[in-house]
Every structure is written in C-alpha cells, then in structure tokens.
Design a protein that fits this description.
CATH architecture of the largest domain: Alpha-Beta Barrel
Number of helices: 16
Largest sheet: 8 strands, parallel, barrel
Mean pLDDT: 88
Number of domains: 4
Distance between the termini: 47 Å
Strand order of the largest sheet: 2-3-4-5-6-7-8-9
CATH superfamily of the largest domain: Aldolase class I
Number of strands: 18
C-alpha cells in the first residue's frame, strides 16, 4: 500500500495574493465548499491578522467546512498566532500554519535577526500555536535558499516544540527539481526526529518549475503538497493542484503515494469557479483544465483517438470533470428546479430574498439565451454577488457605433441612491462607456487590463469581462457577465470601481513584517 499524499490547498490565501485577486467572504466560502467536495485534505483559508475582512473570511470558512481541515496562516508573532487561533476555533478540524524566514538574505535584510534569535522565535511560535490546536505546521520561509545545517537545526527544534507538519517552501521559485528533491531527502535523513513530522512543500513558479519541484520532492519523501487551483498565486503563481493530483494519479506506477481519496471529477468545475470569481482566465492550452486539454485537431491524432482513446490521451476527460455541457434549465423552469441545480453546484441562498433576486436574473437571462448551462448559472451567481453590496450600480446604458462616426455612450448610474447621467465619446463603444462612467465617478484610477471570454459556445453566449484597475498602488479586478459585451464591460468596470473607491483598509503582507 502506498502512502496517502496530503493535498493542502492555498488558493484562498496565497492565491488571493495575486494582484487583483481579492475575494469576498462569501466567495471564499463558495470556493472552500467546492474544495471540500473535491475532498481536499487541508484548506488554507487566509491570513487572519491581515485585516478584519481576512479574519471574518477564515472564521466563516471554519464554520462552513465540516470534512476538510481549515488552516490559518500566522507569522511567528504572538499577535498573529492568537488571531489565527481565534479564527479557526469553531472548525471541526483546525490547523495553525506559522513561519519565519531562514535564508541568510532574509534573516539579515528583512528580519534583522541573528540565527539563534530566529530559532528561538520559531520554537516560541510553535509552542504558542499548540495552545490552540495540536495540528501545527511550521515553514522556514525561503528554505530553498537557506543553509542546510541551519535548516536541520531549526526543523529539529520545532518538531521538539510540537510541530507535526514541516513545510519546505521554495518561496521565490529559485530551485531546480533534482536539487529540491535532494534537499527533502537530506532533511529527512539528517534530522534525528524527522519521523515525527510530515514533510510538505510549497513551490512557486517563477521559473515554471513549481509542479516539477513539488513532484521531485514527493519522490524524495514529501507527503504533503501545497498548491492552488489553476496555479493561482503571487508573481508567477504556485504549483497547480490539478497538475499535481493528476500526475500522481496517472503515473501511479512510479509515485510511492496516492491521491485516491480525492474526487477528481470536481476539478474542472472548481477551476471554473475560481476563474470566474477572481477574473483570472484559464488559458486554452492549460494542462487538465484548459479548453483544449482534451481537444484533437490533427487528423492523425483524431484517427488514433477514434480507434483507441489511449493512443493520444493518457487520462480520461471524464475523470477530471469534463463532460458535455448539460442544459438543465430554461425559461420555463421553476424556482425549485433553479434552487436545486444551484445547490448541486454548491450555491446556497441565505434567504428567500436572495433566491428571488437570483431567480429574477435567471429569468431575464433565459429570455435572451435559449439554453442555460451550468457555467451560465455560475456566472450569474458570481455577477449577482458582485453587485449585491455595490454603492455604484448600472441603471441604463445606450451606445451608438456606426461606420464613419465616432462611437458614443449614454449612461445612467446610481451612486448611493442618487441617479446620475453622462455622455461620452470614445475609440469604440466600450471605451465610450468607460469614459462616461469615469466622468461621473471620477475615481482617478488607471485601466491596466481588459479581457473578454465567452462562458459557453454560440452567438448567444454570455460574455464574461474582466478589468483590472490601479489607483495609488492598489490593484483590483472587476468582473461582469452579460449576453451583451458592452453591458458586461460596464458591469465589470463598475465592479472594479466599487472596490477601488471603497475602504481599502490595512492588510498585512505575510512575506514581510509590515502592516
């Protein structure tokens, strides 16, 4: 019997550190429930000390999740650990993940601490975390550039202090697979009490090697991998959960561990949910979850697959959740069928009012789009939640675009109960609409990204628009969906402006000591 590989998902924490990928509390709970349906072992729900919003989100996930372990991140500081302990208090199974930097450059330039002080603080942090839970994880930040002797020393000390998971992060994506795998092997061999802890890895993708480094570590004894849906994460991202899981599952002939406890058929739906909420589109040729991952255009490939699927497919599309989009609802469908299907997709309504509002939006969509697919429903709910608490709302939009004339837009928006109208011209109808909105809101923000993706196929498909705006160093994403691309664009821009003009608050950065 091979060992179980523990899957630790950090989409809600490290994934959220992608510029513009901030998630609301309700969105985090939706993603956490999807991860729970996949039977992910550990869900790192956030960094509770970062802000009141982060604390509330971790606490909400801890209350909502019953089967997976819910984890809160904490620097090796008393205030961080106490806050994390409070956030996970109501979890059926809770974990505190504490860390401190151990590379020479981090200790000298960032922490300004001597190695002895770092060891002392790490031990103190683990002991304090043990007051809240027996499930404590410790990470030596920037382990990939740390000295081996010092790593052995500090890890031995934290095991003695009560840490039961040791996470070895390649924080800056510096490592190469052979070297990183060898590091894990050496740590397990040289640390006297290594048998008392599970070794874990957390690899970043700066050189495109996060998955390769993680799998090399698994081959050398790591039995937990920290990863994210779609490889989401700061800078170039993290190891992609779907790639780690399917590599181990597909190549069970060489990996000395298994992921048999996971429901891999939930991968594609979870990928789409995360993409829709964060606004980070999945590239078509992305492994496992990309639209082209199981597509064959070459005649030779098509002929081979028709004769025997295994000629060009090493795994079944159905095993990761790819199926023909199922039309389950239409304009004649009732409220109960609507509620039931969304419940199956992991969406629950807090009140009848919320259900009625979403059902009304569904009926409006059904009048414009004959076939309603699951992806349409997910986008509808995400769009509904995005506008639920907005101070700026789109009331009406009219655009004019014709050959030889400059496009123009007339817009009416509601700002905290007061309707305002504006007209503007632009290089195109979307540009005109954005300029009309900005002339009223006067946010002073800069548009960094504008992206359009179709949710389903067909000329009547909903378009999903993502915009990214920046103001004063703060970057946010906005999303909007509609069968009319210009309206979807206006919704997305207004969604982003609501975030950028709202109260940003202070949010601590887990990579520094700053707040």
């Amino acid at each position: 019997m091979s060992d179980k590989l523990i899957i630790f998902d950090t989409t809600l924490r490290d994934g959220e550190q992608s510029p513009g990928a901030s998630m609301t509390k309700d969105e985090k709970v939706r993603i956490a429930k999807a991860l729970e349906r996949m039977r992910v072992d550990v869900i790192e729900a956030g960094f509770p000390i970062a802000s009141p919003g982060d604390f509330d989100a971790v606490q909400a996930v801890a209350r909502a999740i019953k089967d997976s372990t819910v984890c809160g991140l904490a620097r090796a500081l008393d205030k961080d650990i106490d806050r994390a302990g409070e956030a996970i208090k109501e979890a059926n199974s809770g974990r505190i993940h504490t860390f401190i930097a151990t590379s020479p450059i981090h200790m000298k330039m960032k922490l300004r601490m001597e190695p002895d002080q770092v060891v002392e603080q790490a031990v103190k942090a683990v002991k304090r975390a043990r007051q809240f839970t027996d499930n404590v994880e410790f990470s030596p930040e920037d382990a990939g550039r740390s000295e081996l002797d010092f790593l052995c020393r500090i890890l031995e000390a934290v095991i003695d202090a009560g840490a039961r998971t040791l996470n070895i992060p390649d924080t800056v994506g510096y490592n190469i697979p052979d070297h990183f795998g060898s590091l894990i092997g050496k740590l397990r061999e040289r640390i006297p009490n290594a048998d008392k802890a599970v070794f874990s890895v957390h690899c970043h993708n700066d050189l495109g090697l996060a998955v390769a480094n993680s799998l090399s570590a698994v081959m050398n004894g790591a039995r937990q991998v920290e990863c994210t849906i779609n490889g989401l994460g700061e800078r170039a991202g993290n190891a992609a959960l779907e790639e780690i899981v399917m590599a181990v599952k597909t190549r069970r002939d060489i990996f000395p561990c298994n992921v048999d406890h996971l429901d891999t058929t939930q991968i594609v739906s979870t990928s789409r949910l995360v993409s829709g909420i964060t606004g980070f589109a999945v590239q078509p040729n992305k492994a496992i979850v990309g639209a082209n991952a199981f597509a064959h255009e070459s005649g030779i490939h098509q002929d081979g697959v028709l004769k025997s699927r295994e000629t060009y497919e090493i795994m079944r599309a159905e095993d990761v959740g790819w199926t023909t989009n199922r039309m389950v609802l239409g304009k004649h469908s009732g409220r109960n069928a609507f509620r039931t299907r969304l419940s199956e997709l992991g969406v629950e309504f807090a009140s009848e009012a919320e259900l009625n509002d979403a059902f009304g939006r569904f009926k409006e969509l059904a009048d414009r789009k004959h076939e309603i697919y699951d992806d349409d429903l997910q986008a509808l709910v995400t769009d509904s939640m995005a506008t639920e608490h907005e101070r700026i709302r789109l009331v009406a939009l009219r655009v004019c675009s014709e050959t030889g004339e400059k496009p123009s837009a007339d817009i009416t928006i509601d700002i905290e109960g007061e309707e305002k109208t504006a007209n503007a011209e632009g290089g195109g109808p979307v540009d005109a609409a954005f300029k009309a909105i900005e002339s009223v809101v006067k946010s002073g923000s800069e548009l960094l990204l504008y992206s359009v993706n179709n949710i389903t196929s067909g000329t009547d498909a909903q378009g999903e628009v993502t915009v990214r705006v920046e103001k004063g160093g703060r970057i946010v994403n906005g999303q909007g969906a509609d069968t009319d691309i210009v309206i979807a664009s206006a919704k997305a821009y207004i969604n982003a402006l609501n975030k950028i003009t709202g109260s940003a608050g202070l949010r601590a950065n887990p990579q520094t000591g700053d707040v």
